[in-house]
Design brief:
Strand 23 (336-339) and strand 24 (343-348) form a beta hairpin. The strands form 6 sheets. An 8-stranded mixed beta sheet has the order 1-2-3-4-6-5-17-21. Strands 7, 18, 19, 26, 27, 28 and 29 form a 7-stranded antiparallel beta sheet that branches. It has a 5-stranded antiparallel beta sheet with strand order 14-13-12-9-15, with no helix packed on it. It is built from 6 helices and 29 strands. The chain starts with 5 loop residues before the first strand and ends in a 5-residue tail after the last helix. It is elongated and about 135 Å long. By secondary structure, it is α+β, with helices and mostly antiparallel strands. It has helices at 93-104, 108-126, 223-249, 259-265, 268-276, 434-450; strands at residues 6-11, 14-19, 22-29, 32-36, 41-46, 49-53, 76-78, 128-136, 139-146, 152-155, 164-168, 173-178, 184-189, 192-197, 201-208, 211-218, 251-257, 281-289, 301-307, 310-312, 321-323, 329-331, 336-339, 343-348, 351-356, 360-370, 381-386, 404-417, 422-427. Helix 5 (268-276) packs antiparallel against helix 6 (434-450). The relative contact order is 0.15. It has 4 domains: 7-53, no CATH class; 76-104 and 262-450, no CATH class; 111-134 and 212-245, no CATH class; 139-208, SH3 Domains (SH3 type barrels), CATH 2.30.30.
């Protein structure tokens, strides 16, 4: 049977808590208490306050907000946030410090793979050797060559009256069998032997050099067993290192909401899904004023935009990030946005920043956009114009292939903060992000009203 106990000792705003999981310390008042203990971060969200229970790190000095200067007469305006190191508000410093520390750590499992593979390569390399294999040994063959132009008779016995076995032609060669007779040379003839006169033949030599090639051979006869042991050791070591990594990298963020807060939050995912299903979603990168209305379909502003494709209803910011809520995600050109229930988490490269919704400002408006690309299916066309227009607004006949362009009513949302957030997102579907942005503004207003104790 499981058991548990909890006892608290209070001294003013300070409290010491004894429980089965260990001793923890907390400070704060009712509805807003920060707790440092052996587990992760727990966030209580309610209509009356926001409280945290987490291991609190050393305090971090707030960063100064960035300043923006615009040169007189500047026509080209970039739409981009400040450096990610400057974006975090003072309320989120502790959270971001921990998150960046987790992200900066090197994975033991990934780091061990290369040395282990190098160890395997050394094992394989040292288990094989090189040696020479003789393909053809060195030889020196002695034979008898007939030198008489008219040929020579091969006789049965070393005697001119002996029976002739065969008649040899000039330069015909025979194997030398014996040289003991001073007048005759004994040679091999078919399956027997015969004699040829020394006056008609000579002894010759034919030499062949040794032919060899280099070959590899297994020096370590236990290589197979060693490879099996290496594979088993590799698998168990990597699995153990992954468990170690999980403990090092795991960051838990659990949310508990009361009924009133839940009523606000319950449409969170549905609002984001509505936004994500807009036929086209763009990020505005910069705007530029122009007076060349004729060649730009009568537009006064030129907008450089990029279509956003990286949108997910739930994505964790780092591996082993444990939470009990869905985290909507938007991937911008050089920034990633993660929408937690109480703050916006921003990632650029491997660095994070966070801004509470009370410090985030979202302005939305409907703008007329002259669409020169493919018309989105959910766009509302409010007018038409021409790629090249004359003063009266009609088509300029001096230009060939003068296209008729639709003027669409798109929704545009600009995210800003005093710390330097500055991003603009546009949707082809009008008001596609209104409800989602409205949720963020409601949470921000709640945070402002209750003045909760933030980490």
């Amino acid at each position: 049977m499981g058991w548990s106990f909890r006892k608290s000792i209070s001294a003013g705003p300070f409290r010491m808590n004894f429980s089965k999981s260990g001793v923890s310390y907390s400070v704060g008042g009712k509805g807003a208490r920060i707790n440092t203990g052996p587990r992760g971060t727990y966030v209580n969200l309610s209509a009356y306050g926001i409280s945290y229970r987490q291991k609190v790190s050393a305090p971090v000095s707030p960063l100064s907000p960035p300043s923006f200067e615009t040169s007189p007469g500047e026509r080209h305006n970039n739409i981009t946030s400040a450096a990610v190191e400057e974006l975090t508000d003072t309320d989120s410093q502790s959270f971001i410090t921990e998150l960046n520390q987790k992200c900066a750590k090197v994975s033991y499992a990934k780091g061990a793979k290369l040395p282990l593979l190098l160890l395997l390569a050394v094992l394989l390399f040292s288990s094989w050797g090189k040696r020479d294999r003789i393909i053809q040994p060195a030889t020196d063959t002695t034979f008898v060559r007939v030198v008489a132009v008219n040929g020579a008779n091969i006789r049965k016995e070393p005697n001119v009256k002996s029976r002739i076995l065969e008649t040899a032609t000039y330069d015909q060669k025979y194997i030398l069998l014996d040289t003991s007779n001073r007048q005759w040379l004994k040679v091999g003839v078919s399956d027997s032997s015969g004699y040829v006169s020394r006056d008609l033949a000579e002894i010759s030599h034919l030499s062949y050099d040794e032919v060899k090639e280099e070959e590899s051979y297994l020096v370590n006869e236990y290589l197979g067993y060693e490879i099996v042991l290496w594979i088993l050791g590799f698998v168990f070591l990597i699995r153990w290192l992954k468990r170690v990594d999980r403990k090092r990298f795991t960051m838990e963020l659990h949310y508990a909401m009361d009924d009133k807060y839940e009523q606000v939050y319950q449409q969170f995912k549905a609002h984001f899904v509505t936004f994500s299903r807009s036929s086209r979603i763009w990020q505005y990168l910069n705007t530029q004023r122009t007076t060349d209305y004729k060649r730009h379909a009568g537009a006064g502003n030129l907008i450089r935009r990029l279509r956003i494709r990286g949108i997910s209803e739930n994505k964790i910011p780092i591996p082993y990030f444990v939470t009990n809520v869905a985290i909507p995600y938007i991937s911008l050109h050089n920034l990633e946005l993660y929408f937690l229930p109480e703050r916006l988490l921003v990632k650029r490269g491997s660095a994070f920043a966070a801004i509470y919704y009370k410090n985030l400002h979202i302005t939305g408006r409907v703008t007329d956009f002259i669409e020169s690309d493919m018309l989105p299916g959910d766009a509302r066309v409010v007018d038409y114009t021409w790629q090249y227009v004359n003063k009266s607004g009609g088509p300029d006949r001096r230009f060939n292939n003068n296209r008729k362009l639709p003027v669409c009513a798109y929704s545009e949302y600009t995210f800003t903060s005093d710390t330097g957030v500055f991003e603009t997102i546009a949707t082809s579907k009008q008001s596609a992000m209104d409800d989602f942005a409205g949720f963020i503004l409601k949470i921000g207003a709640l945070q402002e009203r209750v003045g909760a104790c933030y980490q």
